[in-house]
From TrEMBL:
Gene3D superfamilies (UniProt xref): P-loop containing nucleotide triphosphate hydrolases (3.40.50.300)
Record-level GO cellular component terms: plasma membrane
Gene Ontology molecular functions: ATP binding; ATP hydrolysis activity
Location in or out of the cell: Cell membrane
UniProt protein name: Lipooligosaccharide transport system ATP-binding protein
SUPFAM superfamilies on file: P-loop containing nucleoside triphosphate hydrolases
């Protein structure tokens, strides 16, 4: 099996997780290299979080091989967890303690001295832009502040590997971008990140490589740009119609304009190398949508190509 010495921090081969008759993870192969940001992209229920829990050594695998930091989670769970940082889907902060106390108490779980955790708490509050709220209780903080505190807390033990499960779910766009900046800074500092998300823009922004999961299995793997190039076109023309009018456009020849079309409830997606040219041709055929948009292809388009449905279904 590949080990940390080979530059791989997490190696899974044929990894399976079952809950009774239900298969949450159906035999996946994954390798996460030191210093990269690696993503699991897919809809809710695809198996992302179950995979993360096995890597975090809090849920035993059913079958297959798994190595984390060169160790076997079944035998070395405590040693692995001491070198991990974990950001769960839902914040599990102690809301009755202050920001500073949440960091200091958590640091003591790792056996750090009081002087060390005091210094570490100060450093991490600055990193998370929470210094001015150091002595405020957690409960009244905004969602974005709580998320930044949860990430700061996960860094108390200077982890080699940081696991982030849906890190920006429920945050507004401004808070999401601020969090992305913090994660980018961590990666620059050499922290290896594993991120699960169902936001394609987040995966494109943060991940060097990713796997696309659907129904417990990996359906594609690669760098975001490489996946888009492989499974989509350079541009997408979106034509929006009143409900039910998409079929009229298809009957009037829009299907002849490109090799691939996705039909969504309120619009048609035409996959093309030149969106403006395709739009001009559509207008020449007498096709008059309510609105049109030319955009670049995204991972959402990749997922539609691979599964026939959107990431948020």
């Amino acid at each position: 099996m590949t080990t940390v010495g080979d530059g791989v921090l997490v190696q899974a081969n044929g990894l399976v997780k079952r809950f009774g008759e239900f298969t949450a993870v159906g035999g996946i192969d994954v390798a996460v290299r030191k210093g990269e940001a690696f993503g699991f992209l897919g809809p809710n229920g695809a198996g992302k979080s179950s995979t993360m829990r096995m890597v975090a050594c809090v849920s035993p695998r059913t079958e297959g091989e798994l190595s984390v930091l060169g160790m076997d989670p079944d035998r070395d769970g405590p040693r692995i967890r001491a070198r991990l940082g974990v950001v769960p889907q839902l914040d599990n902060l102690d809301t009755e303690l202050t920001v500073r106390q949440n960091l200091q108490v958590y640091g003591r779980y790792f056996g750090l001295s009081r002087a060390t955790v005091r210094a570490k708490a100060t450093e991490l509050m600055e990193f998370a832009q929470l210094s001015e709220r150091a002595d405020d209780e957690v409960e009244p903080l905004s969602g974005g502040m709580k998320r930044r505190l949860t990430i700061a807390r996960s860094l108390v033990n200077d982890p080699e590997l940081l696991l982030l499960d849906e890190p920006t779910t429920g945050l507004d766009p401004q808070a999401r971008h601020l969090l992305w900046d913090k994660l980018y800074r961590l990666k620059q500092q050499g922290v290896t990140l594993i991120i699960t998300t169902h936001f394609m823009d987040e995966a494109e922004q943060l991940c060097d490589r990713l796997v696309v999961m659907d129904h417990s299995r990996i359906v594609a793997e690669g760098a975001p740009s490489a996946l888009i190039k492989q499974y989509s076109t350079r541009e997408v023309l979106e034509l929006r119609f009143n409900p039910g009018e998409q079929q009229d456009a298809l009957d009037n020849g829009v299907a002849d304009l490109v090799e691939r079309i996705e039909v969504l409830p309120d619009r048609l997606l035409l996959y093309t190398e030149n969106g403006e040219s395709t739009l001009e041709t559509a207008h020449a055929k007498g096709i008059r949508p309510l609105s049109s948009l030319v955009r670049r292809s995204t991972l959402e388009d990749v997922f539609l190509r691979l599964t026939g449905r959107s990431l948020v279904d």
